[in-house]
From TrEMBL, chains A, B:
Taxonomy of the source species: Bacteria, Pseudomonadati, Pseudomonadota, Alphaproteobacteria, Hyphomicrobiales
Ranges for domain D-serine dehydratase-like: 257-364
Keywords attached to this entry: Lyase
Name the record gives this protein: DSD1 family PLP-dependent enzyme
Gene Ontology molecular function, alphabetical: D-serine ammonia-lyase activity
Length: 379, 379
């Protein structure tokens, strides 16, 4: 199948395959140069076809954010997964079912309470489920403090004594999303590395195993200069890119591989508005760039070939209406787009915008549609 | 099927059927008292079962925001629909297919360009597609200015001369969402009514038909005191309710019929945080209450029975992590919730949170799950 872009029903999600492949290759080469394994996070793409481009092999390794993703990628042949969200004991039967199907699915936790429940489950089921202890890289979310060796060791002992496998530690330097300066980002990556190595050292000093030392976020993965002591890096947004990551500096606007195709459905000429059929339902409510130096509204507007119009944004959005206008203060001219004309909108956040859609329309180098790739949403 | 609530996998979307029915009945009685038809907007619920509770009969009338909704509800037996988003001529074949199936689907437009395209299509296809001219109630989005009789009449003539059916005018007073005072809301409803009546009068004075005069938004529907000259009201959020509408005053917090069920997956006790497995993917990125007098974060936290904890909010969210904490400045105490405990989260915006889910788990008066109702997302 090869179809012209302008025959697609709108709004819909487009994926530029060449940009995706270039983004995947850039991160792979960067991390190979640093001597670590890339374990791509598939929470952004949620697509088997994209995963196969990002992963080192069709069997993995990879990271997922939901058990539904784990089930989907396991069914698609991925055999090495981390479910990167703290485990609730009630979810262990689903984990066990995925593992019984032949996929080495590891889980994550950060408390003695969870470790005891997982150990109990491991002993009762006879499945030594592998566990990574989550370590708090920068205070932004979950995890044991990296210098809290007592808690790390207590969790590790509860796991191994219970019958689970202590596979290592994992961190996510989420605070790097608030940075912009390359030196500060490199420092955040080094901070993440040191926290991981410190936590791994505490386990090993107590005679506990820690074969995996896993870190990751797209900004720290991109700006890391030394990953000594780290075995693998998890990152996900880099594959698709978005305006928020462009604001951080992790990707260039010209690398963003996803966009929303929209059709002009009206004008309010006195106000300088073009109305399109992509509202927040198609773009998501994510306004991540509002906190950055350059606020991109609900998205940056491009022509059908994917070239940004100067300073043209989706400045506001209702559920199924987007309001396109020139950025406040800019002297750019509103393009003359008739009813029925189509545009492409680069999103604030690829994870959030992607989740509003159930498929990608895949584009070749001439912006023709060559395939439809399904996405897996939900839990 | 009747299941206890705490056996559901999390995160998932809950629907309190008694509250839904009470919300539907309250709006129906209010508008019946004002002598107008209620044409519920199904863009919030996106569910046939909810639609049947909200509609006057299983055949309608109703409003939809996407052609996929139109197809879904038409397949479910609804025979009287308005697709409430300005039409793109490329969508007319899909409209025609729905109409050919026996559903009286009307479309909306606000330009001569669209009217000519629709007229041409109507003549070519032999189907006199019914059209409502969108009128701009308050400058917030699309629509012809209500006092621009020349444009209204030109559009009306292009439609009728082309072969389409001019069915009337429609407005949406979206600016009412920014209000809070009941008197100001009643004034916004009156402003919407006057704009609609003015536009209808311009068409009729030119000898054009205008049998339908359609207005609507949940706040103006709720606070309207007189709807003389209006034939029908569209509203949608009122069925489910949300924290944003509670901030406007259109619903009470105790009327909110949707919530997200989540499980505790961690603690950061030194920070006063409880980590749950409902992040922005389950709650949506909608932070509508951030602009209101009371900012409810990513949602208000309730116990399993649906009773709000004092001042307990989802204060921040990552993709699959929610951070639950006491509202800043409050002296409320963080509840003692163990790993595995479940909570319910009332959302900022029912339309946005609902769209993150593909089904409702329906609760009876004792918070037991009695049914699963599918939702239709996408376009």
């Amino acid at each position: 199948m090869v179809e012209p872009l302008d025959t697609l029903p709108t709004p819909c999600l487009l994926l530029d395959e060449a940009r995706l492949r270039a983004n995947a290759e850039r991160m792979r080469a960067h991390l190979a140069g640093l001597g670590v394994t890339l374990r791509p996070h598939l929470k952004t793409a949620k697509s088997l076809e994209v995963g196969r481009i990002a992963m080192a092999s069709p069997t993995g390794p990879a990271t997922v954010s939901t058990l539904r993703e784990a089930e989907f990628f396991a069914a698609g042949g991925v055999r090495d997964l981390i479910y990167g969200v703290g485990i609730a004991p009630t979810k262990l039967p689903r984990v066990a079912a995925i593992r019984a199907g032949g996929t080495d699915l590891a889980i994550v936790l950060d408390s003695l309470e969870q470790a005891e429940a997982v150990g109990f489950h491991a002993r009762a089921s006879g499945d030594p489920v592998p566990v990574l202890i989550e370590v708090d890289a920068d205070g932004h979310r979950s995890g044991v403090a990296p210098d809290d060796g007592d808690t790390l060791v207590a969790i590790g002992r509860a796991l191994t004594e219970g019958g689970a496998e202590l596979r290592g530690v994992m961190l996510h330097a989420g605070d790097s999303y608030g940075l912009r300066d390359p030196e500060a980002l490199a420092a955040a990556a080094e901070h993440e590395r040191l926290a991981a190595v410190t936590a791994a050292g505490a386990l090993r000093a107590a005679g506990l195993p820690c074969p995996v030392v896993s870190v990751g976020s797209t900004p720290t993965a991109r700006f890391a200069r030394d990953l000594t002591g780290i075995t693998e890096v998890r990152a996900g947004v880099y594959m698709l890119g978005d305006l928020f990551q462009a604001g951080v500096g992790s990707v260039a606007v010209g690398d963003i591989a996803v966009s929303v195709l929209a059709t002009v459905i009206g004008h309010q000429r006195a106000k300088g508005w073009i109305i399109v059929d992509a509202g927040w339902m198609a773009l998501s409510r994510d306004r991540g760039t509002a906190r950055q130096a350059v606020d991109q509204g609900y998205g940056l507007v491009c022509d059908l070939a994917g070239r940004p119009y100067p300073d043209l944004l989706v400045t506001d959005a209702n559920q199924e209406h987007g309001i396109v206008a020139v950025r406040a203060g800019s002297d750019a001219v509103l393009p003359d787009l008739a009813i029925g004309a189509q545009i492409r909108i680069l999103p604030n956040h690829a994870c959030a915008t992607g989740a509003q859609h159930d498929r990608y329309h895949v584009l070749d180098g001439e912006n023709r549609v060559t395939a439809v790739w399904p996405r897996i949403n939900g839990w």
